[in-house]
Design a protein that fits this description.
5-stranded antiparallel β-sheet, 7 helices
């Protein structure tokens, strides 16, 4: 059977499915990723692939069946079109709960390397290992609900509240009306209500921490740009996108804060 090229992720080329396995090119960060995935397997977390082995410079992972929204032509500032089921409140709540399960499973894991792809230093106090690039494009949906996360190359230590905020940006999603319409929302949703539903599903107890974490999440993303190997023009485009996100957050902070009370 010929290999099937997979289109789920944004950062990794050459990912293929062969029978019930996924084969991905190795990177210098892969040993740290494998250690984390093995930990998640050991503690019974079902929302991540299993490491099956390494063949030359290729890692072999278990294939997770389901639907992954993917668009290889996607660009920052555009909406990734989602099926109606993935836009539902039920799917949003399930994503929040799955993230909480991941954080619970990650507790106690102590990285033995500082060689993560976008985090080349030891963990800071209060951080835990997490996926690092969560969004619908890296999520497996079954019957319209998220059940697993894929493409773990960006996994890294991170403040858990900031990780919740990063995921909220993508799953809610926190976007202007133009982008929400591109995603497929019609009518347009109440973003404040969806943000509240997501963080409540995760189990955030101090909602006053959400708005500062949303701002910090954008800064975490902006910091990652330095590792992409872009030229000055493309770097400027990326940073301008993050600046636009911060301006949007500032414009909408009152209504989001009100929804979180």
């Amino acid at each position: 059977m010929a290999d099937e090229v997979l289109q789920g992720g944004r950062m990794s080329a050459g990912v293929v499915r062969r029978d019930e396995t996924v084969r991905r090119p190795m990177g210098s960060w892969s040993p740290g990723v494998h250690a984390f995935l093995r930990h998640l397997e050991a503690v019974g977390f079902g929302g991540s692939p299993r490491v099956l082995g390494v063949e030359d410079d290729t890692e072999v992972l278990s294939f997770l069946p389901g639907h992954v929204p993917a668009d290889p032509e996607w660009q920052p500032g555009q909406g990734l079109r989602l099926p109606a089921s993935a836009r539902s409140t039920e799917a949003l709540v399930a994503a929040g709960r799955l993230l909480r399960q991941l954080h619970t499973a990650a507790a106690g894991f102590e990285p033995q390397t500082a060689g993560f792809r976008f985090y080349p230093h030891p963990p800071r106090e209060g951080e835990l290992m997490t996926h690092g690039d969560l969004g619908p494009w890296n999520t497996v949906y079954r019957d319209g609900l998220p059940v697993a996360f894929i493409d773990w190359d960006a996994c890294r230590p991170l403040d858990p509240m900031v990780d919740v905020a990063l995921a909220a940006w993508e799953f809610v999603p926190l976007e202007p009306d133009r982008v929400l319409a591109q995603i497929g929302f019609d009518p347009l949703p109440d973003i404040g209500e969806r943000l509240r539903a997501f963080i409540d599903a995760y189990g955030v107890t101090d909602r006053s921490a959400v708005m500062p974490a949303l701002q910090q999440a954008v800064m975490v993303r902006a910091d990652r740009v330095q590792y992409w190997g872009l030229g000055p023009t493309d770097t400027a485009v990326a940073m301008e996108f993050h600046a636009t996100q911060l301006r949007w957050l500032g414009t909408n902070s009152d209504r989001l804060t009100k929804a979180l009370r």
